[in-house]
Amino acid sequence: MTGKDLSEHPISSEEVYAGGFFRVHRDRVRLPDGKETVREYVRHPGAVAIVALHEDGRVLLERQYRYPLARDFIEIPAGKLEAGEPHERTARRELLEETGYAARDWTRIGVMHTAIGYSDEGIELWLARGLDKREQALDEGEFLEVLELPFADALAMVRDGRITDAKTVAALLWVRAFGT
Amino acid sequence: MTGKDLSEHPISSEEVYAGGFFRVHRDRVRLPDGKETVREYVRHPGAVAIVALHEDGRVLLERQYRYPLARDFIEIPAGKLEAGEPHERTARRELLEETGYAARDWTRIGVMHTAIGYSDEGIELWLARGLDKREQALDEGEFLEVLELPFADALAMVRDGRITDAKTVAALLWVRAFGT
After folding, report:
1. pLDDT, tens digit (0-9, with 9 covering 90-100), for A51-96
2. DSSP class per residue in chain A
3. Quick check: A166 and B165 CB within 8 A?
4. Which of A38, A111, A116 is facing B161, going by the closest CB pair?
5. Cβ–Cβ below 8 Å for B118 and A167
6. pTM of the predicted model, to two decimals?
7. What's the ipTM?
């Protein structure tokens, strides 16, 4: 990266909340001009998300209630990383558990950072093809409904605001723009 | 929304961290099967982000150090909502402060939810055209470098992973897919 150095340097770091799957830190930080400020942020284990396509172009989506926003969302299958588990393995596991599909062909699309102002979360995006139906096996406390929609219908839902989940918007539009 | 009711209902809510711009809640929740669980999430004021286009197709981007991930990111101009301030006014203010540009034409693209598993943040996406150069006026503690790049170059950076910020990926690909 060219241009001036914009780096901020930690002076001290405090864990102000340790939750079940994320932690919150509050750091004193040295700014580029030498002054001090405070940066608060979430430490997240990271996640995977999957654009899973049938041969006929249908895409696997899920309807899921998202408590922080108190409503249902339509989203692509996704799940948090487990410590030490390779991303592709997490992606295979989550797709199978949530949708009941195994996929033969896996291609990494890239990584997406969801909330760079206050979280270190990265979501690894994968494209899955060659789908075979197996058995859905939801985690305890996980409730969702699988949808299998033509890709054009999913794009229409992005366009008209029925799909607003960032990972889903980015991943579907990525596949639309750059192909499979 | 059709299909079975997936709603989760709050039993009790506790604010476990009150920070400078976000708060963290930890709620006891009733699941659809009647069991209880805990949901932790960030309460965020919301934000705006702007795809600002020159007549010749160049787009305004910013290079900014993002402390949670300890590196620079290339992103579209954005800022947090102020209480009671209309979204479009926030968008106009942030574009001017961060880039020094005023825009005559404003079109709302839609809303994007960045981290629906653990945050209620929504980012209102706006398209700004008819740019006039004024004076940049960064906030205290804000350091960034403005870039003005051909739209195709920005898309190439999405494709090859130089741009991974979710709001930026989603907004640029939206404009690519559905036009201006």
Report:
1. 999 999 999 999 999 999 999 999 999 999 998 899 999 999 999 9
2. --SS----EEEEEEEEEE-SS-EEEEEEEE-TTS-EEEEEEEE---EEEEEEE-TTSEEEEEEEEEGGGTEEEEE--EEEPPTT--HHHHHHHHHHHHHSEEEEEEEEEEEEES-TTTB--EEEEEEEEEEEE----PPTT--EEEEEEEHHHHHHHHHHTS--BHHHHHHHHHHHHH--
3. no
4. A111
5. no
6. 0.96
7. 0.96
